[in-house]
Specification:
- The chain is an alpha/beta fold.
- It has one domain: P-loop containing nucleotide triphosphate hydrolases (Rossmann fold, 3-Layer(aba) Sandwich), CATH 3.40.50.
- 32% of the residues lie in helices and 30% in strands.
- The chain has seven helices and ten strands.
- Strands 6-7-8-3-9-10 form a six-stranded mixed beta sheet, sandwiched between helices. The protein has a four-stranded antiparallel beta sheet with strand order 2-1-4-5.
- Strand 4 and strand 5 form a beta hairpin.
- Helix 3 crosses helix 4, helix 4 crosses helix 5 and helix 5 packs parallel to helix 6.
- The longest helix has 16 residues.
- The protein is globular.
- The two termini are 23 Å apart.
């Protein structure tokens, strides 16, 4: 694994066994090799069911490969204990999902605070950080609102603020503009691009050419295999 690489996949296969007796095999990834450098912006594209989301889950230590290795900062995630994986997910990686995944009973401010609670950040510091992030995404006046009281674009902005709460080194976004109108989507893309300019490595799954245009490298995946990697 080269210096400057934050996450690498080496000969990775991911096979899901399905059905009542788990006899049906679904090969989500097939022999994938990939390195993501610190501070880069990578767009992952391909048809539905091609393995894009599985790729993100493995990069973010949400899952383990069936075969091959996933190395996060040089460490094989299959060899790490659950507590170590949880620390990586909480402190090193930020996640932005198309469905937002906000806690419905927590306010915008509390949702942004949540990763810092798990990281043991003192209350005064996490409140300061959460309010700073909500201000950056233009939601200072909405900090006490529940997700149900926010628009889709506002919820996604809260999700981005939450993803950045612990100053991650890697931001993983799965169709972050997919459920939003074009104008709101541009605002979300601007926030993600700003994080990248500040040194956060970004990997975004997208069908949107405007999102892909912001990336410095494009990866196309089909049937679980990388079929094309292009430097822009």
């Amino acid at each position: 694994m080269k210096d400057g690489v934050i996450v690498a996949l080496e000969g990775v296969w991911k096979v899901y066994r399905m059905g009542r007796r788990r006899r049906i095999e679904v090969q989500a990834l097939r022999g994938v090799d990939l390195e993501v450098a610190r501070g880069e912006f990578l767009a992952v594209m391909g048809p539905s069911g091609s393995g894009k989301s599985t790729l993100l889950h493995l990069m973010g230590c949400l899952d383990r490969p069936t075969e091959g290795r996933v190395l996060f900062e040089g460490e094989d995630i299959a060899r790490l204990r659950p507590a170590a994986l949880a620390r990586i997910r909480n402190r090193k990686v930020g996640f932005v999902f198309q469905s937002f995944n906000l806690s419905p009973n927590l306010s915008a401010l509390e949702n942004v605070e949540l990763p810092m609670v798990f990281a043991g950040v003192p209350r005064r510091e996490r409140l300061r950080r959460a309010r700073e992030l909500l201000s950056r995404v233009g939601l200072s006046e909405r900090e006490r609102h529940l997700p149900s009281e926010l628009s889709g674009g506002e919820q996604q902005r809260v999700a981005i603020a939450r993803a950045l709460a612990n100053s991650p080194e890697l931001l993983l976004a799965d169709e972050p503009t997919g459920n939003l109108d074009s104008e709101t989507g541009k605002g979300i893309l601007s926030l993600i691009s700003e994080a990248n300019r500040e040194g956060v490595a970004v990997v975004v799954v997208t069908h949107d050419p405007e999102v892909a245009a912001c990336a410095g490298r494009h990866l196309r995946i089909r049937d679980g295999r990388i079929v094309e990697v292009t430097d822009v």
